[in-house]
# Entry
Amino acid sequence: MKSMDGNTDNFWKKCSTCKKPIAFGQKYYICSVSTCQGLRTGYSFCSVTCFESHLPGARHRDAGAIEKKAPTQAEAQAMAASEAGGGVSPERRRIIPAQSSSSSGIASTLASSIPHDILIVASKLKDYIRARSEMNTSA
# Structure
């Protein structure tokens, strides 16, 4: 991994709490809460103690430390190269073909005849929210 000054470091990442280096191939911990695992936050902890010091500030209801293993130096370089190249592999790319003129004329005629109003039944929506997230809703 390259540091800010351009030098190559001998570690993968720094601990989010104590800032100690996490070496390539070393075990580390992440928070089980999805918001702590995002690209923007990406919290990584060198020990369970560092993870536990993260909890009071994060105010999670129910969180746990998930043990992971840091990538090797070669794997980290490969990931950095794929991110620099756009990060989209050719086999995962989605190509949408252009519509032909005959099918686009039919589609525009159909689209103009379809009403654009959306009907939402409030009681059904409230039941759905209650079932999905166990949260209450008000008027």
User: Anything to note?
Assistant: The first strand starts at residue 13 and ends at 14.
